[in-house]
Amino acid sequence: MRLGLIGLGRIGAFHAQTLADLPAVDSLVVTDAVPATTKEVAERVGAEPVDSVAELLSAGVDGVLVAAATDTHLELVLAGVDAGLPVFCEKPLARAVGDAAAVVRRVQESGVPVQVGYPRRFDPAFLAARAAVEGGELGGLHTVRSTTLDPAPPPAAYLAGSGGIFRDCAVHDFDAVRWVTGREVVEVYATGSDRGDPLYADIGDVHTAAAILTLDDGTLGVVSNSRGNPRGYDVRLELHGTADSAAAGLDDGLPLRSLEPGVTFPAGPPHGFFMDRLATAFRAELAAFADLVAGTRPSPCTAADALEVAYIAEAAALSLREHRPVRVEELRP
């Protein structure tokens, strides 16, 4: 199998190594807007460098992965689809939810499979959580808590163009809640704090956020996010039902310090960043894309799934601005 990878920044370079190590991938073609980056990554992972997206799409690839800047996702996904190539795209499909909806329509009309990058769907504990819900082990769910706490804020330039904490960070929690429960979010009530940092106030974002999600069967979701958690990268999911409770993310790398006398859990060291916390998930995610390209499985996270998550994020951002609950239906065309 011959795959093409567009964008070799932090996540793209990480994916390049993962793809190079996959048994199903015979050859890898890479490109980046910075030629020196293309050259460096290609030499490091043994890939074939090309100078442009057009050259990559015409290089005989069987599928293409988009890991370039967010503003390029719409154009690059559609270029791959128009070429008849299965596409993997890092979230989001597009910066604006209306553009994402247009991409979904084009993808559905084309019949070309698209997979969007939500790696928690491939984390072993999150998979077990979904299986526990589907198998009825927890009884009827009444509360789901999902957490993403980053160890440190991204660069100011990234924050200024990210669309805000709900669109670039909490979307992973929104997708996890929707996917694990198998339910749709119908209402969002969100709040946040800039912690007195003028950077966040100036760009209309917050440092720390919380959102209450009401699902279509009455289950409540509690989503917690922060730009700064000095102890480490914290990703967890709690499920509370009428028969049992369970959690994903309670391993020895959990970045929480217990104050109970004599308790040694977690043993540490804490997870430092998403690349170590979700390393297994990222490998499984790209292996799933290889299966998608080979035609042996459907997309495990479709463009339509990503659009639903985008609507939830838009509802959260609107709720934060207007200090009120927002029905997701308000955001649909």
UniProtKB/TrEMBL annotation:
**tRNA processing listed as a keyword:** no
Cite the GO molecular-function annotations of the record: nucleotide binding; oxidoreductase activity
Signal sequence bounds: none
- Per its UniProt entry, which superkingdom is the organism in? Bacteria
Instruction: Enumerate the SUPFAM superfamilies for this protein.
Output: Glyceraldehyde-3-phosphate dehydrogenase-like, C-terminal domain, NAD(P)-binding Rossmann-fold domains
Q: Which residues form the GFO/IDH/MocA-like oxidoreductase domain?
A: 126-245
Residues annotated as domain Gfo/Idh/MocA-like oxidoreductase N-terminal: 2-118
Give TM segment ranges: none
Which UniProt keywords are given for this protein, alphabetically ordered?
Answer: Oxidoreductase
Is Oxidoreductase one of the keywords? yes
- Family according to the record: Belongs to the Gfo/Idh/MocA family.
Q: Supply the name of the protein.
A: Myo-inositol 2-dehydrogenase/D-chiro-inositol 1-dehydrogenase
The species this protein belongs to is Pseudonocardia kunmingensis
